[in-house]
Amino acid sequence: MPRYRRQIAAGSVQHIISRFVDREFRFDSSSLGPRDARREYLRRAARALHRADWQAFGFALMSSHIHWAMRAGAQPSSAVIKPLHSGFATWLNTIEGRLGPVFADRHRNLTFEGESAALLLAYIHNNPVRAGVVADPADSSWTSHRAYLGLAHAPPWLDVQLGLHLCGFDASAAGRLRFHEMVVAQSKQARRIDLSGGDMQARRNATRLALCAPVEISSPTVAVTDEGIRIDVSPQLRGCRARPRWNGHASVVLREVGRLTGTTAAGMRSRNRTQRVVNARRLALVVWTRELQRPAVELGRVFGLASSTTAALIASAPPSMRAAAAALATRLRGREAA
User: Fold this and answer.
1) Which candidate, 314, 270, 275, places its Cα nearest to that of 292?
2) Structural domain count, the chain
């Protein structure tokens, strides 16, 4: 299945998540010996960020997965993640004498809006606390939290001031302390599937099913509202209008096509191959697939047709039949709306 290019607005706050294959603890592998895989990963991150127009302002390098908080640039997120992960994977496999992929699939993106940037950083910096590695986020060297508190050197590519600003704090000692208190206040929260995008595919599938149109679904957007946290998965429509899925039964379409063509539903289901019946089947398929946005295989099963035969019937429909199908579908949608 082809991949769509992700639609990410420049300047938006992004949560980027990557996992190692089979959730292996690749950062903590015993075969690395004294080599520090996390330090090597961050060294390569500096190079990748220097070449891209994205700004990193937070991270957590867990044993089995990685979190980034970044502000998007005009380039796609792969401009940072692809060179970083391909180079690190080669280095890690060479050190460990292994072959094969290191990262599971491509990275995941979630967009965080407005005040939710503070929610994002608190969630990322509390990863070691949730994992039981430390009791206080300030005690972990696996995240950017110590750099925010001035307890560790912040590398040039880590924009701590940007992160503090997005969270509503200043870079003073008092502002950093308030930031720490905000993070600690959320340290007891359990892992949240909505903030990590664990249900992203289900949300995408549900939206595509509802629209029943070949559209790209944007990266999920996380926003804080008066009612709480809102997760939105919206379509990116490029100059087209998606029609809602028609949920009626196939028998309704067959009955209407029969009235229009002088055939019967039973005749269309039979093995009758007269031109009139074949044209009725073709019209029903065009209405079902092109106008009502339903899968061809559904009606193909009703007719007992192979997928190739179904596709050939739809493809051979003349323009006049398509016009008739559009008119019939309009009537069906009008009845459903009423």
Assistant:
1) 314
2) 2
